[in-house]
Design brief:
It contains 6 helices and 16 strands. It is of the alpha+beta class. The strands form 2 sheets. An 8-stranded mixed sheet has the order 2-3-4-1-13-16-15-14. An 8-stranded mixed sheet has the order 6-7-8-5-9-12-11-10, covered by helices on one side. The protein starts with 7 loop residues before the first strand and ends in a 12-residue tail after the last helix. The structure holds zinc ion.
């Protein structure tokens, strides 16, 4: 089996309003709306996906749309920041773009790289980190953000935990991460080839508050594994190290296992394939409601229940209204 996790596969969050969420991730951040599907465990609610042209593993930011859930600030036992990678020279572009669109943000630095901190439509903290790699990124040519400045997928995620020792131990002893730099209560780790897509920061925050699974928070982070065979090996290894791991679940676009790391953050390990083109050709990704075969019998009913989502086009984002994402928690 693989000696280490290659990097981030996707990050899944909870939104109150799938339309505002789409306006933000497509219209402001320039990601592609790559899949409109349902939450397989709550199938009368959406699961929507944004990413690069194909939703390449390492680029997919996804949301459960749970309109009736309360909104709350993230806390310990959660991913508290999702960081996207942009070219180092693109930060000035992003500052002026966000300013023009009325999105509050500030400049900061994360270890060796400059970064911009902002919040999405639901109040989830995001960063744009000026350290990118184009290795696996498939640009979307209709993005409202041009290729030179576009988001290249994830840079990293930040896990906040009350006590970091057991989390760090799982990441390094079992999952193959390597400890890197440290700054205050923040420890950086890298995995696989390292660099963007393969970085996790662990922040120790004993005072809390403890995060709850609700609107405005990250539900889980998924790590990559190349195929089903390697996934089973990870499952065995994690079970032997004392984790309570779910059986393999077929998510149609990939196969998944889930477990909580000792700090409480929900981890998934997802296969790279088959990917989002399993049921739509690349040029049509996100165009219709995609349902795994075993949910097809419910299509008519779901079409009726689920509200329409209008994906902004490049033309509409030129005059984008900032009102939808000005409010944070
Ligand atoms: Zn997931």
């Amino acid at each position: 089996m693989a000696a280490s996790i290659p990097g981030i596969h996707h990050v899944t969050c909870i939104t109150k309003d799938v339309q505002k969420c789409t306006d933000f991730y497509v219209g402001v951040l320039g990601l592609r709306f790559i899949k409109k599907s349902i939450n397989q465990d709550l199938p009368d609610t959406y699961h929507i996906y944004f990413g690069d042209y194909l939703g390449t593993p390492g680029t997919a930011m996804t949301f459960f749309g749970w309109p009736t859930w309360p909104r709350q600030k993230a806390g310990s036992g959660q991913v508290t920041t999702v960081s996207f990678a942009v070219p180092a020279g693109a930060l000035d572009f992003w500052s002026s773009r966000l300013k023009k669109l009325g999105v509050d943000h500030r400049r900061t630095s994360r270890f060796d790289a400059g970064a911009i901190v902002l919040r999405d439509a639901d109040g989830i903290e995001l960063e744009l980190v000026g350290q990118a790699s184009d290795d696996r990124w498939k640009p979307w040519h209709e993005s409202p953000v041009d290729r030179d400045h576009a988001i290249r997928g994830f840079h990293s995620v930040t896990l906040t935990v009350a006590e970091s020792a057991a989390t760090l131990d799982l990441l390094t002893s079992t999952m193959g991460f390597r400890k890197g730099q440290k700054a205050g209560n923040r420890t950086r780790l890298e995995t696989g080839a390292g660099g963007p897509h393969a970085v996790v920061d662990v922040v120790e925050s004993p005072e809390g508050p403890v995060g709850e699974e609700t609107v405005g928070t990250v539900h889980h982070v998924a790590w990559r594994t190349p195929d089903a065979e390697a996934q089973v090996s990870w499952r065995d290894l994690l079970m032997r190290s004392g984790r309570n791991v779910t059986p393999v679940i077929d998510r149609w676009y990939f196969k998944s296992i889930y477990f909580r790391e000792p700090g409480g953050v929900l981890f998934e390990i997802a296969t790279d394939g088959p990917g989002f083109t399993v049921d739509e050709p690349p040029e049509k990704l996100g165009a219709t409601l995609s349902l795994p075969p075993w949910f097809q019998v419910r299509r008519d009913q779901l079409d009726e229940i689920l509200p329409p989502i209008v994906v902004p086009t490049t033309a509409t984002t030129e005059g984008h209204s900032p009102a939808c994402h000005a409010a944070g928690p």
